[in-house]
Amino acid sequence: MNILFDCISQYYPVSIGAWEALSKVLTKVEISKNSFLIQEGTVCNNLYFLEKGCLRGYYILDGKEITYWFGFENNFVTSFYSFISRKPGVENIQILEDSTLWGIRSDALNQLFDSHRDLERLVRIINEQYYIRLEERLMAMQFKTARERYEQLVENSPHILKRISLGQIASYLGISQETLSRIRTQV
Amino acid sequence: MNILFDCISQYYPVSIGAWEALSKVLTKVEISKNSFLIQEGTVCNNLYFLEKGCLRGYYILDGKEITYWFGFENNFVTSFYSFISRKPGVENIQILEDSTLWGIRSDALNQLFDSHRDLERLVRIINEQYYIRLEERLMAMQFKTARERYEQLVENSPHILKRISLGQIASYLGISQETLSRIRTQV
DNA sequence: TTATTTTTTTGATAATTGTCAAAAGAAAGT
DNA sequence: ACTTTCTTTTGACAATTATCAAAAAAATAA
């Protein structure tokens, strides 16, 4: 749990009182490889912090799994659309390595926003940082070739290459597994 | 300005006091076609609300303009990365039709967050909604063909087709203008 | 270890999309 | 109306990437 504290402190230094209130409503989740944290068609009631392990988010398009996200240590995890809109989502979040997470329920978080304004500020700031990252990914996706997208991944996110299988990386980059395999050998 | 009030009320109903404080620090910006609201290499100090008109955001990649965003009535506008990080951005925001905006400076907004917590909540909620939209675009970009992306645009954002030139729409969809022209005739 | 399953690579081919160049069409200015 | 400029379309061709099928390699389980 201290890991979470250190992590959020980098975004915004919340008060001791706020942290204590937050700690009280956190639930530890230990979950093993290949199981699911979130499944499509359900409302996602929790926001998670990934303390240890590795996850992937994917959805199904034309019968194929499209990986749109990977989660690693110190990442926040949820089916964002579903968590915010309180409607069923289309995303699955699968555990790729045995993982430890801390979860908070949507209603508990909203109550904390009322009682501790620095927690609401924290979440606003985290949201903003995540928005920027998403924007960067969209820009890369919009007009770069498969090779450029792969090279950018090698440059910016080498940890992904070490822990994720080729097929899932290919999907994440929006290319076929065969193409990615060929790109790798030709570099 | 009432238009802005109506717009934000749909996200979160702020108190009268908060609205009054916000109103005081808003600046009206009237800006004419083909000029620039934001230019690359500069720090973007303002968040804008677009009351009337139409804008596009683009950046330069390999000497080409890549349009990544269009703004219409009731949209919030800024160079998000720059506004949040307080560093120079890579984006240009160009006026496509004579426009009326309301601007607020970054420092003024942060002061308002301290004095009016419902404004911070409002912004948190707006950010979340914008995040969801961005996520949807990324998903479309990741694994749909050019034709599918175009058809999705026709379905979801027909107003874009009416007000934006073909070349800029093609760029927004991540395809060449010639390809988009061919797709249109073959539908 | 051996067997089984999963992942990655390779080959052949087809489909999609980009690029360059030029023509046609539409819009804006005089 | 007539230029001039900007936008869109069309053609020919090249490059990129996907798809299908099978082989090779690696990981996992028995």
Report on this structure.
Two copies of one chain form a homodimer. By secondary structure, chain A is α+β, with helices and mostly antiparallel strands. Chain A has a domain at 2-115: Sandwich (Jelly Rolls). Chain A has nine helices and six strands. In chain A, strands 1, 2, 3, 4, 5 and 6 form a six-stranded antiparallel sheet that branches. The mean pLDDT of chain A is 95. The interface between A and B is medium-sized, with 32 and 32 residues. The first copy, chain A, binds a DNA duplex (30 and 30 nucleotides) through residues 145-147, 165-167, 175-179, 181-182, 184-185.
Which overall shape of chain A is indicated by the principal axes computed on the Cα atoms?
globular
The total of beta strands of chain A comes to 6
Name the average pLDDT of chain A.
95
User: CATH H level of the domain at 2-115 in chain A: which superfamily?
Assistant: Jelly Rolls
Largest interface (CB within 8 Å) is between: A-B, 32 and 32 residues
Order of helices and strands of chain A: HHEEEEEHEHHHHHH
Report the biggest beta sheet of chain A as strand number plus sense, adding barrel if it closes.
6 strands, antiparallel
CATH architecture of the domain at 2-115 in chain A: Sandwich
Instruction: State the share of residues found in helices of chain A, binned by percent.
Output: 40-55%
- Which topology of the domain at 2-115 in chain A does CATH recognise? Jelly Rolls
- Please give the radius of gyration of chain A in angstroms: 18 Å
